[in-house]
Amino acid sequence: MYRDMAILFAFAFVYALVAGRLERTPVAGALVFAAFGLAVGPEVLNWFALDVHARSLRTLAELTLALVLFTDAANADLRVLRISYAIPERLLLIGLPLTILLGTAIAALLFPAFGMTESALLATMLAPTDAALGKAVVVNPSVPARIREGLNVESGLNDGICVPILLVLLALAAEPVDGAGSWELVLHHFAQEIGIGLAVGAGLAAAGVWALRLSADQGWSSATWRQLPAVALAFTTFAAAQALGGSGFIACFAGGVVAGGMARHRERKHELLLSAEGAGDLFGLLTWVLFGAAVIGQALGRLTWEIATYAVLSLTVIRMGPVWLAMAGTDLGGDGKLFLGWFGPRGLASVVFAIIVLDANLPASDVLTATVAWTVILSILAHGLTASPLTEAFARRIGTTQVPVP
């Protein structure tokens, strides 16, 4: 265990020294993390003695997702939904459901051994997007703000929307139900998890922000300790909801939305969330490394034409088709719709979902996680290499004029 810890944190230290330099290249950090994990994992150097079903691996994945959900929701600029709502709202309310439905249908065709639940699980695991893998798009001022913010808000919120869908599908896959009584029991459990999660998340976030305001007004806190509250609040929210029988993920998502909405000033919010974002980056790094060691290593030997086909379709037709339909009726031209559709990278949320599903020991877990692994690998390469050149080409094509979207 201590050898594994030494390797992981030594790698984190070395990467931190060159992170800024690497961020200016097409090489995504996720690619470096996953490749390192594969190299030191059982399939290559065998420096890690990993049990992919170990509880500690799932715990790390859960805490990573909890922190990411909280910070993404808190950081999401919800003013975009009020000022230029068409793009993020359509992506989330039309594009996301259509993506899951289309992904489910194609999975059922390509994997005949899957039931409808497993097909829907795969589609849901690969529905969330990760703006960090397309950073060149969301930070480039040459791209119209409404497109940048639309992709950013979509990425910040779609993983939280997918969580309850994943939870109910996992429950159905683990214990198939038939009959009205069984369905009623599953739905009651699902509603309980959602309800408790929402109540705990909103309640703790409101109380936490109020306490932070009081502390700041009274001058009780110090610069050193102001780095801790956001991380502590996210983990407290997750653990409290889980302990009370709710969904910690829903709680963190709801808590982040409430905390972000209650923030007095955007600059102040950014200052409070900075340490949480740093902790999220570290947890994400560790999760990517362990994903590379525990999942990608096994996935390399499980590549089939069905998995390869689904991975390609997930990044193209399954994503881009629903986005095109979702943007119907707006003033975005064909190039804008294609641009939005292409830049839906799959990243950390899909990785964490895959680890959770792998730990659930479903009959189809290995195929599900292998498909997610190959889709994420392809996404890292394809989106990482195309982000800068396609962004520059798109900016030249449309210029920087921003036409309001109704």
From TrEMBL:
Q: Name one GO cellular component term.
A: plasma membrane
Predominant location category: membrane
Membrane spanning residue stretches: 29-50, 91-114, 194-212, 232-261, 282-301, 307-327, 339-358, 370-390
Keyword list (alphabetical) reads: Antiport, Ion transport, Membrane, Transmembrane, Transmembrane helix, Transport
Top-level taxonomic group: Bacteria
Where does the record say this protein resides?
Cell membrane
Q: Which GO terms describe its molecular function?
A: antiporter activity
Transport: is it a keyword of this entry? yes
Protein's UniProt keywords contain ATP-binding: no
Instruction: Return one Gene Ontology term, BP aspect.
Output: proton transmembrane transport
| Coiled coil regions, renumbered to chain | none
What range does the record give for the signal peptide? none
Q: Which residues form the Cation/H+ exchanger transmembrane domain?
A: 12-392
Membrane topology recorded in Swiss-Prot or TrEMBL: Multi-pass membrane protein
Give the protein's recorded name: Sodium:proton antiporter
